[in-house]
Amino acid sequence: MNIRIIGIDLAVTAAHKAVVLDQASNTYVSPVLTCHTDPADLDSLLDIARAGASEPVRLLAVLEATGMSWYSVGQYLERHNVDVYRVNGQQVADLRRVYQRHAKSDRIDARVLARLPLVMPDSLHRCYFRSGPLMTLQRACREVARLKDLVTASKNRILATDELTWLGLKGILPPFSPLAFWLRENWYDPWRVQAAGEEQLAQAWLTAVPEASADLSWVPALIEQSRRVITLYNSPDLLDYAQFQASLQREQAFLQQADEQAHHLRLTTVRPLYRQLHPSRNLETLRGLGQDSAAIYIAFIGDIQRFPSLRDFLGWAGLIPFSRQSGDAEAQGLRVTKAGPNLVKASAFLNAGIARRWDPQIAAVYYQQMVKLGKHYLQAVCACATHLLTRVYAVLRDDRPYELRDVDGTPVDKHTAHRICLERYHVPDEIREHNNRRVRKARQEARLEKRQKREERR
């Protein structure tokens, strides 16, 4: 069967550029065409791609991941019997430099996209179009992550403001407790707090929140802190505490709103869809994974059968190191490739940090990295995250729950597994500190070497 490749350089607002390449003759059978995300334009493109062929034609389309344009165009082509491949923009840029080192245009990119299946067929993977519920789950997981980032940023701003205006309140009361919120909204001026005194301040709190705890040990500590602030700043005119209080009222309202939205989205969308798409909930049998983390894996992985092997799955996830080998030498300790969805990598890292305390096999990996190889904590947890992802792949591929085992393969219950991790694979604090110092020193030396090389080139 004759194979023709359609290279489409997608645009977000402008027109797309497309070209058709005949695989057998390695020649273009069409000029560079202009089309839009419109069924009529796409049908016309398919007619041109099939025109003039003396036998049935198999069509391949190669798209660059441009915004969400790839989804609209790709799913339409897929439904019309076209094998659709989506590639990373970096792949296109690298090959374009081979063909046209000093030029860049949409027309060139379309031709480069059409040649990618000929140049690097093993690096191309069929585009995976998620179903409605799966896509909704993925978007909901991304939205929850964005809201959590907003919550974290808001908390950091509040803590920074507390440090400036009150020299920090963390030592006196929990910074995001109802009491701390109430103080920022009503009693943020240290001069006012000092003038009110302990009795009035305590009475104001008990009046505002009658069900509050009778523990008022924070009151004298706050009065003493206000005295330190007054001594440091000397004048109430130096910092406008009324404006700081108004700003924090808005910030705290934003923080509570974002936190409530994330919680509501998890309860009403993420968890119900996750249970619908993964009814067995086998992923939760892995130590370190809860509903929310498992939902992220289900949302982004989709059909596990689209990964023919574990190697393909780990390459997609991106938590494997770069490879650099020449002759008999092979570089060690290279950074991870950072391919794959960021949310999957972040979840795997956080889950691995917990799993190493409960899974003896992952704890052994962590111990090996820290104690015997002298790795930094982050490097060790990344290694654990890769092992955790192999378990995620196996659980989804076999559709069965995970069974905790010792390093020799003996099945163990969770309490025994936890005890093994604590007793056999505990990493002493002095080793952690030594590894941190060693890594920091290595980074400083690398930066110094780079600086010296730049100065030599000048």
Which descriptors apply to this entry?
Nucleotidyltransferase, domain 5; 458 residues; 3 domains; alpha/beta; two-stranded antiparallel sheet
Q: How would you explain this protein's 3D organization?
A:
- The chain has 458 residues and is an alpha/beta fold.
- The chain folds into 3 domains: 2-123, 2-Layer Sandwich (Nucleotidyltransferase, domain 5); 137-265; 282-427, no CATH class.
- Helix content is 59%, strand content 8%.
- The protein has 16 helices and 8 strands.
- It has helices at 39-50, 69-79, 89-99, 106-119, 132-166, 178-186, 190-208, 218-233, 241-277, 291-301, 310-317, 342-355, 360-372, 377-398, 414-424, 429-457; strands at 2-9, 16-22, 27-28, 33-35, 57-64, 82-87, 325-326, 329-330.
- Strands 1, 2, 3, 4, 5 and 6 form a 6-stranded mixed β-sheet that branches. A two-stranded antiparallel ribbon has the order 7-8.
- The chain starts with a strand and ends with a helix.
- The mean pLDDT is 89.
